[in-house]
Amino acid sequence: MRLSELGGKEIIGLDTGERMGVIGDSDLVIDPQNGAIESILLSGGGFLGLGKKREDIVIPWSSIIKIGPDMIIIQLKPLENQTVQK
């Protein structure tokens, strides 16, 4: 998959079902030694510096559950005796 294909995808948290952001509005942390993506960094700032501020969120690449045509599903908290409905 090319980086340009990730650009407009929404990031959805499996834990809460909440929309966390868009890949195009985030930064990717890349390992300079091998070029692999290590994590996604979602900025905590509001739109154009306005709005509600939150902490920056670091999403390890290993937390990605599924990359679909429109969104990326992530799991930040490990599943503990939970069943996922499909």
From TrEMBL:
Domain of life: Bacteria
Organism this protein belongs to: Brevibacillus panacihumi
Annotated ranges, domain PRC-barrel: 1-75
Endpoints of the signal sequence: none
Protein name, as recorded: YlmC/YmxH family sporulation protein
Stored Gene3D superfamilies: PRC-barrel domain
Pfam families (alphabetical): PRC
UniProt-listed InterPro entries: PRC-brl_dom, PRC_barrel-like_sf, Spore_YlmC/YmxH
